[in-house]
Amino acid sequence: MVVHQHRRRPGRAGEAVRAAGVALAVTAMSGCAGGAVGDDRPPVDAAAVVRGAADALTKTGSARARTAMEMATGGTRVTIRGEGGVDFKNRMGQLLVMLPTDVKGEDEHRPITELLVPGALYMKNRGAGVPADKWVRVDTTALADGNLITGGATDPLVAAELLRGAQEVTYVGETEVAGTKVRHYRGTTDIGRAAGSASAEVRGALEAAAKGFSKDTVPFDVYLDEQGRLRKVRHRFTYVNNGVIDVSSTTLLYGFGTPVNVVLPASGDIYAGKIAE
Q: Would 57 disulfide with which of 67, 83, 88, 255, CB 3.0-4.6 Å?
């Protein structure tokens, strides 16, 4: 099953999702600027602090990442997990995505390797009739959700850029994430507003998402360290496809400065045939 949620007719975005067969999430359903962390007083402008998280990551350079995408509908709940690294300066990343055992009714699944680059998602071990030694390439600017949920993991770079549209932000307080003191903020972000402020490399994907989701507003909880770097963020997406499906997408960043090496596949290694849904 492929999920689409539109204010407009599906067009090429819907066709891209079906043709690529990359809706892993769909198949499952058929952590500071503004003051030192030790000072628990809220920042003067919490929204501005959150909107600056993506820039703080770019200055840092790179990080290790863990992702978790939990979907719930009709009493059914599944979680898809990923782990890898992101180069925020060069706008590239790599994740190893693990499908839960009940997604396809099989006991074990080979991890899916995902390469994240501006405007595209590459996947290996996708299955669905794709040879094991081939990659699938998807144009993320043609996906109805801009790959916020399609690949079974929100691109950590896009997750940070999505915060550029933060509004109605509340400072919750000081806490810890993986042993690091952080400040917790809660609010909503507007996808269209984020797209207008995003870096050029991810703007196209967010513009696609702004057109594809019926609601531009996305609730979030974000945790920033004393340098304003994103340590953890949880976005909550809701869409309708034969019923309401709630998605909680969590990104955890750590190991800042760890080198990330992303090697794109040669053109001959990209599968050009038809992909089963």
A: 88
Q: With contact defined as beta carbons under 8 Å apart, do 68 and 81 qualify?
A: yes
Distance CA 170, CA 188 (A): 10
**Rounded Cα gap, residues 190 and 219, in angstroms:** 9
**d(Cα 230, Cα 95) in Å, to the nearest integer?**
18
CA distance 216 to 234: 16
* Residue 273 DSSP class: S
Q: Which residues contact 128 (CB under 8 A, 6 or more apart)?
A: 21, 275, 276, 277
Q: Token digits for 143?
A: 């996906």
How many C-alpha atoms does 116 have within 13 Å on its Cβ side?
34
Instruction: Count CB-CB contacts under 10 A for residue 36.
Output: 11
Question: Would you give the end-to-end CA distance of the chain in angstroms?
Answer: 7
Query: What is the DSSP track for 91-145?
Result: TEEEEEEE--TTTTT-S--PPEEEEEETTEEEEES--TT--TT-EEEEEGGGSTT
Q: Which residue shows structure tokens 């600017």?
A: 141
Q: Is the dihedral of CA 36, 37, 39, 40 positive or negative?
A: positive
User: Alpha-carbon distance 222 to 52, whole Å?
Assistant: 12
Q: Read off the pTM.
A: 0.82
Within the chain, what is the greatest distance between any pair of CA atoms?
57
Q: Which two tokens stand for residue 250?
A: 């969590």
Confidence check: pLDDT of 12 > 50: no
Collapsing DSSP states into helix, strand and coil, what is residue 241? coil
Query: Could you give the 3-state DSSP secondary structure of residue 257?
Result: coil
For residues 104 and 71, what is the distance between their CA atoms, to the nearest angstrom? 15
Question: What pLDDT, in 10s, does the model give residues 95-132?
Answer: 999 988 755 555 557 889 999 999 999 999 877 778 88
C-alpha span between 138 and 121 (Å, rounded): 5
- Say which amino acid occupies 230: L
